[in-house]
Amino acid sequence: MTSATPTDPDCLFCKIVAGEIPADVVHEGAATVAFRDINPQAPLHVLVVPRAHHENAAASAAADAEGFAALFAAAAEVARAEGHDDYRLVFNTGAGVGQTVFHTHLHVIAGRPMTWPPG
Ligand code: AMP
Ligand code: ZN
Question: Does residue 94 belong to any structural domain of this protein?
Answer without folding.
Answer: yes
